[in-house]
Design goal:
- Helices cover 11% and strands 66% of the residues.
- It is mainly beta.
- Strand 8 and strand 9 form a beta hairpin.
- It is globular.
Amino acid sequence: MKKILLAVIVAMTAVVANAQFWVGGSFGLNFIKPDYSNSEVLTNFTLAPEVGYKINDKWDVAVALNESFIAVDGEFYNTFTFEPYARYTFAKTGIASFFVDGGIGVGASGFEGDDFFGDSRFNFYLGFRPGVNIALSQKVGMVAKLGFIGYEFVDDAYHTFGINLNNSPLTFGMYYNF
């Protein structure tokens, strides 16, 4: 039993010694004036911290917590999503690495004043996001993701399956590698 415990400790120490943990995330601020309605400007603020682990040169695993606040016409809307994903880096050239994130998002959204867990809408997505990581230094990287390929569902609102590669789902983020 002692030999097995010692072998597990040695194996875990080797994994941790070679570990490449990273933290970071993204934030966004959008102001949208719809032409199709008499609505005021829609304001959207998003904060999405992430933590991840680099398994090897090709694979990362991570989790993001995405919180969005939307205000329009005096009403406030909030969305929270838990988003675990795996990242596959398929090409590197100089300081740029090109990747695709494959993940699942599970969350809830609701209006201000709602019982958030009782009156909220269930959100779910399953899909892929292509992106690029620019290594600013050995420890700091800037990440951009564009688009979404997959399935998205919002309870009592919509569900969609397809490819969205326009600039509206463009996100930027920064990562710090330990």
